[in-house]
Amino acid sequence: MPISRKILTPVAAVPVIFAVFTMFFWSWIIEPEKIKGTKHVLHLAKTIPLPGVGPESLDFDPNGEGPYVGVTDGRILKWRGEELGWVDFAYTSPRRENCSTNEVVPSCGRPLGLSFHKKTGDLYICDGYFGVMKVGPEGGLAELVVDEVDGQKVMFANQMDIDEEEDVFYFNDSSDKYHFGEVFYVYVSGEKTGRVIRYDMKTKEAKVIMDKLHFPNGLTLSKDGSFVVTCEAGTFTIHRIWVKGPKAGTNEIFSKIPGAMDNIRRTPTGDFWVALHCKISLFTRVSFLHPVVGQFLIKTLKMDTMIHLTNGGKPHGVAVKVSGETGEILEIVEDTEGTTMKYVSEVYERDDGKIWFGSVFWPAVWVLDASVVYDRK
C-alpha cells in the first residue's frame, strides 16, 4: 500500500499543479502581444449599425455609391445614407425560407469578398459555400461564375480582385476541403489545403497559381497589376505572386504581419491595408506549433471558446498598412480595448479621405477620417 501511494501521489498531483499554473498565468497565456509603434485611434471611428451580422467585405459601385456589404444570411446590403439607411440589393441563393440573421445556413450561402467590375457595373461575390458569383447593377439573385478548377470543387471562395485590362480575376479558395462553416478548423488545424486561382473571363478557364497554403484569407492585386498578394493567415505571412513581367509564375514572401489576417485592400496610392482578426498571443503561437496541437484544440473546445481565447478574452480592432512596393509595415492602428471596433475583417481606404472597416462577426461597419490615422504620431 505505501508503495502504490508513492507512485500515485505525483500522478494525482499533475492536474492540481496544472490548475494552479493556469489560474495564475492564464491571462498572460491568452493576452495579445503589444505591437510597437501602434496608434490607438480606431475607437474614434463612427459606428453604422446593420440589419444583419458580419459585413465581412465592402465595396462601392462605379458611381461611388455604397458601401455594399454581405451578411450572414446570404444577402448583399447597400448603404443609402443616413436618411434611407441599408436596403436589400442582392442575395446568393434563392432558398431564403430558413435563413438566419445570426447563424450561417449553408443553403443560404455566405457572401464574403466583394468586388465591383467598374466597366460593367457587375458585382462579383466570393461565397463561402457556392464559389464565385456575380449580380448585375440592378441586383437580385446572383448567378454562378466558377465553382470548380482542375476538376476540383471550389469549397471556400474568400476574397478576390479583378484585372479589368486583362479580363481576368484572382481569388482565394481558402480550403479545397472545408466550407466557411469550418473556418476555425481550417485556421487552427494546420492543414495546407488553400489555393490561389486565376479565372479568365473570356475563355472561362480557371487555373491554380499557388497552392498548399495554410488558410489563404485576403487577396488583392498591385496597382499596376503585375502581382497578386495573398494573406496566409495560418503563418502570418503575405505572399507575392508575380502574374506579369519577367518574374511571372514565381512567388516570394512579401511581408510578415503580427496577427491573424483577414482581408487585404489596395489603397488609392498603391499600398495595402490588412485587417487583423486579432493580434498574436502565446496561446496562438502554441496552437500553431504543430497541426496535432491545433487538431486537439478543435476536438476539445467549442468554436466560441476558440474565438474567445484567440482574442485574448477581449475582442479588439487592429489594422496594418504595408508598402505596396516592399511589404514594409507603414502604419499600425488599434482599438485595443474593443470599445468601438471588434473582429475587423476589412479596411477600405477611399480617395475621399475616409477609411471604412468591416467585421466578420459584428452587426456594424465603421468609418474613420483618414486624417485621424495619418496626423497622429
Automatic annotation (TrEMBL):
A GO MF term: hydrolase activity
Cited Pfam families: SSL_N, Str_synth
Gene3D superfamilies according to UniProt: TolB, C-terminal domain
GO CC annotation terms, alphabetical: endomembrane system; vacuole
Keywords annotated in UniProt: Glycoprotein, Membrane, Signal, Transmembrane, Transmembrane helix, Vacuole
Keyword Nucleotide-binding: no
InterPro entries linked to this entry: 6-blade_b-propeller_TolB-like, Strictosidine_synth_cons-reg
Major subcellular location class: other
SUPFAM superfamilies: Calcium-dependent phosphotriesterase (SSF63829)
Top-level taxon in the UniProt lineage: Eukaryota
Domain Strictosidine synthase conserved region: 158-246
Ranges that cross the membrane: 7-29
Family recorded in the similarity comment: Belongs to the strictosidine synthase family.
Name the UniProt record assigns to this protein: Strictosidine synthase conserved region domain-containing protein
